[in-house]
């Protein structure tokens, strides 16, 4: 990450160039030298260090407003070093990222910007990927779309179905699915569990916002007894959802024929990733990325089907860190997927962020919300 001193140095350079240019223009216009002192509001008279400190407390919207107050502040606010600092400072704190807002930059920020990076618009990139800005620019339906949505509400639609799978369902101390089942204030049950699939999965219907029904088919790697033993003994399980090349490899080749029909019928998928910092090695990410690609194989279903990734930890406390959602998206190589996707932070204990993920999933499955 860029150090604060590097940013201040860049801002000071911009300030010096700005007033050098102003002085030269004044000398050309009236032949008299102009003072390098800043004229105007008291904010302009502060040191660059103090100006930078103030900007670190402003929201992206307020920074843009500040840039519109004068040519001086426009120059300062447009500094690519400043916005690169903000981008890498805030990325680990963001709770979600999707296929439209994934940063088009390297996740490791160098101490200085090379020539190619100086041409990159870090300000535009920050405003594109920042969750607060994403929500602000979210598409608002036009009048005719609202009327269409009203009439469509009278037309019965089939209940969307989603398949949920992933190591976060089994490796965490607290069961995400168990918490969902016992949290009617968050997601009320709308239907009893359907038949078991060889003890590995079943379908449960829920109601979102008391009106939108949807079904989740939970697909575990194996039966409950084996899952619990593997969790307690920290063993690695080969998921029975997939077919593998040999007995040594954990990289899947295809979906187990037993689950082909389920994966073809669903409207989308929910992958539960283990986002705790104590999780396994990079080899685990490679296996999980391969699982997602096998599930989303175009031969199995349309590439328009969305993939919601729940970046899950057991509980969130001040002394327990999580893997940032942007890092999860990078490790799972989601940017190379043709399908729409979203990574949403959540916690198995409180289900924070779960409804935001469900909302995105239903919208991208064609449900009018």
Question: Your description of this structure?
Answer:
- With 369 residues, the protein is α/β, with parallel strands linked by helices.
- 40% of the residues lie in helices and 15% in strands.
- The strands form 2 sheets. It has an 8-stranded mixed beta sheet with strand order 1-10-9-8-2-5-4-3, sandwiched between helices. A two-stranded antiparallel ribbon has the order 6-7.
- Helix 4 (60-67) runs antiparallel to helix 5 (71-77) and helix 6 (80-90) packs parallel to helix 8 (122-129).
- One of its GO terms (biological process) is protein polyubiquitination.
- One of its GO terms (cellular component) is SCF ubiquitin ligase complex.
- Pfam families: F-box-like (PF12937).
In short:
With 369 residues, the protein is an alpha/beta fold. The protein contains 16 helices and ten strands.
- Quaternary form: single chain
The end-to-end span amounts to 39 Å
Strand order of the main beta sheet, please? Answer: 1-10-9-8-2-5-4-3
Specify the structural class: alpha/beta
Low-confidence stretches: 144-156
Question: What fraction of the residues are assigned to beta strands by DSSP?
Answer: 5-15%
Please state the CA-atom Rg, rounded to the nearest Å.
26 Å
Average pLDDT, rounded to a whole number, is 84
Order of helices and strands: HHHHHHEHHHHEHEEEHEEHEHEHEH
Number of helical segments with 4 or more residues: 16
Q: Level of helix content?
A: 40-55%
GO biological process, one term: protein polyubiquitination
InterPro entries: F-box-like_dom_sf, F-box_dom, FBXO4, P-loop_NTPase
Pfam families: F-box-like
């Amino acid at each position: 990450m860029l150090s604060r001193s590097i940013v201040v140095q860049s801002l000071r350079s911009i300030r010096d160039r700005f007033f050098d240019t102003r002085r030269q223009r004044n000398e050309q216009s009236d032949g008299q030298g102009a003072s390098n002192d800043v004229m105007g509001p008291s904010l302009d008279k502060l040191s660059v260090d103090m100006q930078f400190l103030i900007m670190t407390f402003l929201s992206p919207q307020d920074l843009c407003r500040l840039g519109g107050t004068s040519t001086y502040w426009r120059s300062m606010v447009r500094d690519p070093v400043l916005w690169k600092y903000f981008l890498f400072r805030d990325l680990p704190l963001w709770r979600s990222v999707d296929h439209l807002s994934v940063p088009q930059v390297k996740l490791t920020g160098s101490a200085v910007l090379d020539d190619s990076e100086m041409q990159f618009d870090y300000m535009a990139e920050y405003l594109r990927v920042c969750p607060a800005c994403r929500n602000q620019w979210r598409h608002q339906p036009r009048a005719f779309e609202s009327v269409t949505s009203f009439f469509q509400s009278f037309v019965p639609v089939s209940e969307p179905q989603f398949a949920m799978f992933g190591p976060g369902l089994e490796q965490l101390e607290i069961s995400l699915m168990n918490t969902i089942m016992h949290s009617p204030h968050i997601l009320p049950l709308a239907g009893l569990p359907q038949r078991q699939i060889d003890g590995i999965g079943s379908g449960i219907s829920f109601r979102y916002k008391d009106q939108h029904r949807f079904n989740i088919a939970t697909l575990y790697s194996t039966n409950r007894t084996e899952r619990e033993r593997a969790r307690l003994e920290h063993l690695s399980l080969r998921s029975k959802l997939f077919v593998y090349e040999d007995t040594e490899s954990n990289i899947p080749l295809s979906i187990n024929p037993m689950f082909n029909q389920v994966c073809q019928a669903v409207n989308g998928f929910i992958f539960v990733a283990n986002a705790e910092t104590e999780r396994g090695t990079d080899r685990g990410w490679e296996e999980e990325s391969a699982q997602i690609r096998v599930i989303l194989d175009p031969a199995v279903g349309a590439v328009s089907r969305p993939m919601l990734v729940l970046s899950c930890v057991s509980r969130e406390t001040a002394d327990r860190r999580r893997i940032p959602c942007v890092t999860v998206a990078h490790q799972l190589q989601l940017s190379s997927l043709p399908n729409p996707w979203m990574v949403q932070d959540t916690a198995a204990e409180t289900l924070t962020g779960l409804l935001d993920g469900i909302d995105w999933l239903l919208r991208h499955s064609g449900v009018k919300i």
